[in-house]
Structures are given as structure tokens and as C-alpha cells.
Amino acid sequence: MNELAKKFIGKECVIYAFDSNHQFVGTLKEVTDGAILIENNGTIEAINLDFVIRIREYPRKKNGKKKSVILD
Predict the structure, then answer these.
(1) Shortest CA distance to 59 belongs to which of 30, 25, 18?
(2) Neighbour count for residue 62 (Cβ, 10 Å)
(3) Which of 14, 20, 25, 45 lies at a C-alpha separation of 20 to 30 Å from 70?
């Protein structure tokens, strides 16, 4: 998972945890052994990679703007 997460560094991502109520949105800054750092609105969060089940780039419309609703 570490190697896969490194491909998203510098991109705005949606990160899903085991609990369906926890989604993290932000720019992936750093990937270390067992954790990732994301930045959102000037705050930095550390997330344990053991609890991450999915990482994806934030979806965008055809014109490049961010989608307002993400349906998964």
C-alpha cells in the first residue's frame, strides 16, 4: 500500500477508511512506513495506512472543476 499511495503525492485525493463514515479529503503530502500525511485547508492530518481501504484522486467534471457530489 505504501508504494501505491506514493503515486498520489501532490494530488488532491479522497481517502476511505474501514468505517464508511470516515472519508478524508485533501492533498497527499507524504507517505511513510504505515502512515500518510494529508493537508486540507491549511491543516495537516496523519492517517494510519492499516485502516485505509481506498485512495482515489478527487473526481472532476469535464471542464476541470471539482464535482460537488461524490457518489460511491
Answers:
(1) 25
(2) 5
(3) 45
**What pLDDT score was predicted for residue 1?**
81
The dihedral over CA atoms of 15, 3, 1, 6, expressed in degrees to the nearest 10, equals: -10
Query: pTM score, two decimals?
Result: 0.77
> By the 8 A CB rule, do 56 and 26 touch?
no
Residue 4 in grid coordinates: 501505491
Q: What's the grid cell of residue 63?
A: 471542464
